[in-house]
Amino acid sequence: MYYKRSTGVILVWKSTDVPSWVKWVHHSEGKTHCPECLKLDGCFFTEDNHPTWPHHPFCHCTLESVDYAVVLSSVTVDSAYSKYDPFLFNTNGQYTHGKERMLNSWGYFADDIPWLKAEIERQSLEKYLAGNYELDKLDTWGQRIDIQIELPRKIGEGTVTFWSGWLVCPNGHLQMATPYGDDCV
């Protein structure tokens, strides 16, 4: 568990519900390098939920333990405003995915983007630190993960739950791939 004071000081105490973490480390041996392993280099994953390792025959990568305090103090999330406007809310009419109609039916409109952005980032950070993510596609762009987001409906009662997609980057940085990937089943 963690607590961040307004002074910027993070107080850490480890409890039994805190996952163990590993860092993917690529070792340069040989003349060629796997593009996927290079993208994983320096990325943090929970010990029980990381990409297949070794990743391929002759893989020289290792998984090294990382103290939770290091993970906690390093992890950052970044969701570009453009993922919400124009993409999610389709404010310029260039997308045909219809996600803005779904969000509107929940009571969310383009005016809500600052709150939605902050809330999705907050939940994603909290859930990633707790190890609550699912591995998705790994390719030359890197490892994607899905994190479940729950929002209160502004129209009607209850909540809506969906997957948000993120790219795992070195040193605990998460870069948003999509704010809304798919409904949770």
Give structural notes.
The protein is α+β, with helices and mostly antiparallel strands and 185 residues long. 23% of the residues lie in helices and 33% in strands. It has five helices and ten strands. Strands 6-10-9-8-7 form a five-stranded mixed beta sheet. A three-stranded antiparallel beta sheet has the order 4-3-5. A two-stranded antiparallel ribbon has the order 1-2. It is elongated and about 55 Å long. The relative contact order is 0.16.
Structural class: alpha+beta
Strand order of the largest sheet: 6-10-9-8-7
Could you give the count of β-strands?
A: 10
Indicate the low-confidence ranges by residue numbers: 1-6
Largest sheet: 5 strands, mixed
Intertermini distance: 28 Å
Helix content: 10-25%
**Coarse shape:** elongated
- In N-to-C order, the SSE pattern is EEEHEEHEHHHEEEE
C-alpha Rg (nearest Å) = 18 Å
